[in-house]
Design brief:
Layout: H1 2-5, E1 14-15, H2 20-30, E2 36-37, H3 41-47, E3 57-58, E4 64-66, H4 69-80
Parallel strand pairs: 1-2
Antiparallel strand pairs: 3-4
Length: 81
C-alpha cells in the first residue's frame, strides 16, 4: 500500500504487540520501509484487533475510518486517485 498510495497525504504505519526483540527481528526480516510501533497492546485493545495482520485506515484525528484491506484499498483509491 505504501508503494501504491504513499505520498504527503498517506503513510503506512505498522503496529505490533508482544516481545519487542522478536518484533524488531520480524521487522528486520520483513524489510519494512515504513515506521512500526512496537509494544502496542493498548492500540490493539482500542481498535478492537481480533486477528493479525489487519489493515486500518486512520484519519489525521486518530479515528479509524476503515478496518479491512478491501475497504482500505477502495477508500484510498477513491481519495488519492
Amino acid at each position: 500500500m505504501q508503494e501504491e498510495f504513499g505520498s504527503d497525504n498517506f503513510s503506512v504505519v505498522g503496529v505490533m504487540q508482544g516481545d519487542e526483540a522478536e518484533a524488531r527481528q520480524f521487522i528486520e526480516d520483513l524489510g519494512a520501509t515504513y515506521p512500526i510501533l512496537t509494544g502496542a497492546s493498548e492500540t490493539f485493545d482500542k481498535w478492537g484487533v481480533t486477528m493479525i495482520p489487519q489493515a486500518y485506515l486512520v484519519n489525521p484525528d486518530g479515528v479509524v475510518v476503515a478496518n479491512n484491506v478491501d475497504d482500505v484499498s477502495a477508500l484510498l483509491s477513491a481519495a488519492l486517485n
